[in-house]
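Weekly sync notes, structure subgroup
Attendees: PM, AL, DS (notes)

Item 1: joint prediction request from the bench team. They want all two components modeled as one assembly rather than separately. Inputs as received:
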Amino acid sequence: MIRGSYKGKILRVNLTSGDVKVEAINEEWTKKYIGGRGYGTRVMLEEIDPKVDPLSKENKVIIATGPLDGTLAPSSGRVMVITKGALNGAIACSNSGGHFGPALKQTGYDMIILEGKAKEPVYLWINKGKVEIRSAKNLWGKLIDETDKLMREETHPEAETMAIGPAGEKLSLISNVMFNGHRAAGRTGVGAVVGSKNLKGIAVRGNLGTNVADPEKFMEAVYETRDILNKDAFSGGGAALYGTAMLVNVINGVGGFPTRNAHDAYFPEAEKISGETLRDKNLVRNEGCAECPIGCGRVTEIKEGKYKGEHGGGPEYESIWAFGAMCGISDLNAVIMANYLCDRYGLDTISAGSTVACAMDLYESGFMPKEDAPFTLNFGSSDALVESIKLMGEQKGKLGKLLAQGSYRLAEHYGHPELSMSAKKQEFPAYDPRAIKGIGLEYATSNRGACHVRGYTIAAEVLGNADRLKYEGKAELAKTFQDLTAALDSTGICLFTTFGLVGKNIAALYSTATGNECDEKEFMKIGERIWNLEKLFNLKAGFTRKDDTLPPRITKEPIKTGPSKGEIEKLDQMLDNYYKVRGWDEKSIPTKEKLEELGLSQLK
Amino acid sequence: MKILMLDPLKCTGCRACEYACSFKHEGVFNPLDSRIKISTFLEDLSFVPSVCMQCEEAYCAEVCPTGALTKNAETDVVEFNKDECIGCKQCVVACPWGSIKLEHTGKEIIKCDNCGGDPECVKVCAQQALTFEEVEDTVAAKQKGVAAKYKEIAKEMAKGVNP
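Output from the run, pasted for the record:
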């Protein structure tokens, strides 16, 4: 019998047959992989062939919580979408804030395993543990905010919702899954996988509470960690004041802010799109996800110009960068509008912005014939940005269809895949590896393709004491951040807590909530196990060392201006060392000894 | 007399107060067992806390046929005595705030008791959207704030009258 904060039950829904089953959670797996991301990956390895087409009915999607979801642990309401990602076929776990995670748990389930494919569009209504598969014919084609509203009207006004938008329905490879109408599980094209199953969304409302194994010790850990976060300069200060966009001036200030499709890494007009300017001109109020003392979420409004009166959630740092500097745009209102549009269509903002930047690059280089673009597509054109996002969301015309497949396919179509600023076909986010060496290693080795939230080395390299321009120690740094994040994600707590908290704090929350004995060392070991588990999935899916790479612009073209002028990224030397530190061979395959040490031998 | 002050402008909608409240009173994390409620308006992403205001003229107590709800003149709290409650739920109807609630099974009445003078919801609210304050102090602070503005206006006015 499972103890503590797990519900102990998994809901399995077969969309082909309409069968709904309730299964017991595997207790041994909760100890080895915690929950959410770790547990879900283990299920994926058990139940699907890693080589399947991500958009076939053989792929599965797991909507999962972690054991800290539904408790008072700080920032503990993450919900995870685990699947084989549509963008690159690697193991995908995208996670989102909002209130869906705790609400799912209130229905009595730790996670939902979705399999098969519905004949016609459907959505799930999980009401106090009862499951209904309902027709979504009237929802299909609707934008995310409309879908959220309609689903709540049809179910319960306080139901928490998950939905895909038109982008996911049309199988855009950079489509996301949205929660509560405005929070995103953004990356790896998870929206397309959900869309391929004819599933428009899920509404949940439950009435069950969550218990913890050791209430007294758990509450001690809760108040200790909340106190640390409230006092920390970022989580208790800057993040609330300016949101994550406080980083615009910080990262641009070190010359690590990829600009105009990474032709440069310094954006002279950054101030116009900074967190400070956003606060000044557009902020209505802060928003906090479930149980979050930080409240980095922005509620904003466009107060002047052609988009006057538009309002919504965000943008956060990565989105501002993608639509701003990456496209050479300093018109904050257009950046915000692009962000709202992506949230409505259900598009990943990082990939969407970087894909528009790539299109601008192809257009200006002459690789894209002028007649392929319905408007001039130059860097710096805010109209081109907004119109491109609309084309992308609706997949209108040749350009719209190409944009919706992400920058790699777009650039490949025009014969220049090297102009896609991606790794494993996924667009990298707002930190230039030429200026911040460790993050490039992290992008290249990230199990889901280029990504900052698999191992946020920025915390040490820019916000901490590590030298961002040195290569030494970066393999160890990347591994530490990757392992910690893998374990932390699996608990359901938000990565941003690590601005104040360390492994010891999270391990204390996790162990007192679940009753699973766990100190910092064990917590990191679990994280390493999950990282290797994901790696095993990718190896079986056909990924090799040659996929652990970065675009040639990053490894060969020096930064032209700014504080990091002249820098390139030397990936290979870090990579060799990284594999060694990981206990993998030179082909990036985990050694027998490493797998034995981690208890993964049977999965090789 | 101290009361719970609710500030929708500061509330970020995280609902930590609901979890803290339910845990304090029921030993479980369940927003449906919380005495305080955060209403979320997704159309404009605004968040409004509501909780029992311990009314001077407590309709819930007036309508209660068994005396399960009574206004304690000393503590100013509208107290709920579960043993006297027959579950007629007319207090739910009578409360203008919707702050007489039903717990998660929908059977039993729950309401805020200010945690005996040390509210758990206030402790967990990082945004200080919830505070527990002496009413007189709040009034005085508000008056001072308005007066400070008026002082500046008065200065401007004085210039016109007596240059």
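Discussion: The radius of gyration of chain A is 22 Å.
Action: AL to compare against the crosslinking data before next sync.
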